[in-house]
Write a structure and sequence with these properties.
Blueprint lengths: L9 H18 L3 E17 L2 E19 L2 E7 L4 H16 L32 H18 L3 E20 L4 E17 L6 E2 L2 E5 L8 H14 L9 E7 L1 H14 L2 H5 L18 E5 L22 E5 L2 E2 L6 H7 L13 E5 L8 H8 L2 E8 L9 E12 L2 E14 H6 L1 E4 L4 E3 L2 E3 L2 E9 L2
Parallel strand pairs: 8-13, 12-18
Antiparallel strand pairs: 1-2, 1-4, 2-3, 4-5, 5-6, 5-7, 8-19, 9-10, 9-12, 10-11, 13-14, 14-15, 15-19, 16-19, 17-18
Helix pairs in contact: 1-2, 3-4
Amino acid sequence: MNDSAFTHTQDQLRELARNVLAFARESGASDAAVEISEGSGLSVSVRRGKIETIEQNRDKGIGVTVYSGQRRGNASTSDFSEASLKATVQAAWDIARFTAEDDAAGLPDADMLEMNPRDLRLCYPWQISTEQAVELAQRCENAAFEVDPRISNSEGASVYVQQSHFVAANSRGFIGGYPFSRHTMSVAPIAGKGNKMQRDDWYTSARDPKKLANPEAVGRYAAERALARLNARKLDTRTCPVLFEAPLAAGLLGAFVQAVSGGSLYRKSTFLLDTLGMQVFPDHIQIVEDPHLIGEVGSSPFDEEGVRTVRRKVIENGVLQGYFLSSYSARKLGMQTTGNAGGSHNLSITSDDTKRADTFEGMLRKMGTGLLVTELMGQGVNYVTGDYSRGASGYWVENGVIQYPVEEITIAGNMREMFQQIVGVGNDVLARGNKSTGSILIEKMVIAGS
């Protein structure tokens, strides 16, 4: 990215980082880490063709962590002046001196740090004016209205443009940083009138604006989704197969990550405690983490601590091969960091059985008769027990064909059993954030209805 897009260049951020570390050493800190970031963005929203909001942001900040042995203190500032940096380091040092010791506290071991970060090309500036962003949002919303007269209203359409850069460094020799971008376009049309209205939404998001879907395509698809939900019915209580549409299937993948992440493990607050090397999914399921995909949202050469990231098989033939650990959580567990301070990177779930991986229509046929879920409500997941219960809406399917929309139901099960009962993962792959998956078919769940 052109450094002129920011107030500071990458070199200037690196110099500031070195200064902060020097101030920390002078204060008496045994170790220190710093992250400096700067970003700018544009956000516009329209509703029924009229501008609702225009926001431009420009922000910057420095976060400092200092150690006094195994005592840790943190402080931050948005003022990059030398006096402010010294005061921030001093504030962190004062906190560290009076904080209780923590045996797991400390920087990553030097041999785990990424000293030569690769360029993954994560920044694609979008040279778009406010007027052009408004026009894109209007085109997106107009396309939704043009699909059918029954599209009666809209919650609006928006365009979001963001580009930032950062530098992280620590007293064990690591220094690295890079620019990155993220751009999004979305719309939420409303179909029907009175007490029979239904809404749905769709969005497209990418680092590279050239990879965003056409605004008209986003608008039309969102409208079609809203229209398909009209005249929804209720279901009586039953047990049946459930097909999670790809955007919701990404949530199942996210639940898995949380269940095998360090914080949940060392607190013993997960239903997947002590499952390393055990069969967690059926043997046809593979989950891969690949942090080094060029230009992808979940890519990074190092994690939030500067630890190098690596491509790995998290689930191989259904068996759990590794957790998601930071240096701190790894020490708490007597293990080694996996380079996941800050979360997972480009996680994908697939079925290596071609009979189990099919198109979306094929997944419906595979299910036969059951529930297609397209929206979930609430946060009904108990990570200690694995119990899962959430409000849902979607479509009732018979003989592999959608029959009618359904609403006001609850789907329930236990996530450990749900993972084991994955019948297949579709090849209708969709990326949502740093997770990529097709639709996921669960053998059976309880549907609570009228």
